[in-house]
Design brief:
heterodimer; A: mainly beta; Immunoglobulin-like; 7-stranded mixed beta sheet; 4-stranded antiparallel beta sheet; 11 strands; B: mainly beta; 6-stranded mixed beta sheet; 5-stranded antiparallel beta sheet; about 0% helix; about 55% strand
């Protein structure tokens, strides 16, 4: 099984530019999570989807961040415009409802210059 | 606010030694704790978990100890190997939630 697949692995952009990250969860996992991880810190939840519905987006900075999971499978996280402070690793995870099988992807490392 | 945190940011050991990584938590409502291992360029990987009704749980070369009195969690790795080098995070889950809250990581460096 492929696990949680994220792309791209690395992204370098100039500040004020838009950027998008893609995540494909493990087959059958209907819960999908996006996390932000700063260096040396644990992941912080940005948004959680149950199927196509965002059920917890309280930590998502909605002025510049957006996410979608239109068909309840893969998901996209977007930042527009990016700021220097957005440089971090963006992790995606998926699980069955209730948390079983909780698995992280390898993340996208974003550098904003 | 309530949080989960680690005492030591970096731990260096010799191959074959036992390693102990510590974690303090402050949320008394947490009833489930997890240790994750994160290698460079990868996402966190589940190692072992423990429920609050237990004091100790053993896996393959790893043991988690939970002291609810002082809100302390530890991960013991026996016969540490170079492949154990990684950042280790403890995480907690509050009753009724399956979303883990992560603390700050500890970097384990194993010298051959």
């Amino acid at each position: 099984e492929a696990g949680v697949v994220q792309s791209p692995r690395y992204k370098i952009i100039e500040k004020k530019q838009p950027v998008a990250f893609w995540c494909n969860p493990i087959s059958g996992h209907n819960t999908l999570y996006w996390y932000l991880q700063n260096l040396g810190q644990g992941p912080e939840l940005l948004i959680r989807y149950e199927n196509e519905e965002a059920v917890d987006d309280s930590q998502l900075p909605k002025d510049r961040f957006s996410a979608e999971r239109l068909k309840g499978v893969d998901s996209t996280l977007k930042i527009q415009p990016a700021e220097l402070g957005d440089s971090a690793v963006y992790l995606c995870a998926s699980s069955f409802s209730g948390g079983d099988g909780y698995t992280f992807g390898s993340g996208t490392r974003l550098t904003v210059v | 606010g309530e949080s989960v945190g680690l005492h030591l940011p970096t731990l260096s050991v010799q191959e074959g030694d036992n390693s102990i990584i510590n974690c303090a938590y402050s949320n008394s409502a947490s009833d489930y704790f997890i240790w994750y291992k994160q290698e460079s360029g990868k996402g966190p990987q589940f190692i072992i978990d423990i429920r609050s009704n237990m004091d100790k749980r053993q896996g393959q070369r790893v043991t988690v100890l939970l002291n609810k009195t002082v809100k302390h969690l530890s991960l013991q790795i026996a016969a540490t190997q170079p492949g154990d080098s990684a950042v280790y995070f403890c995480a907690e889950r509050k009753g009724g939630s399956y979303i883990p809250t992560f603390g700050r990581g500890t970097s384990l460096i194993v010298h051959p």
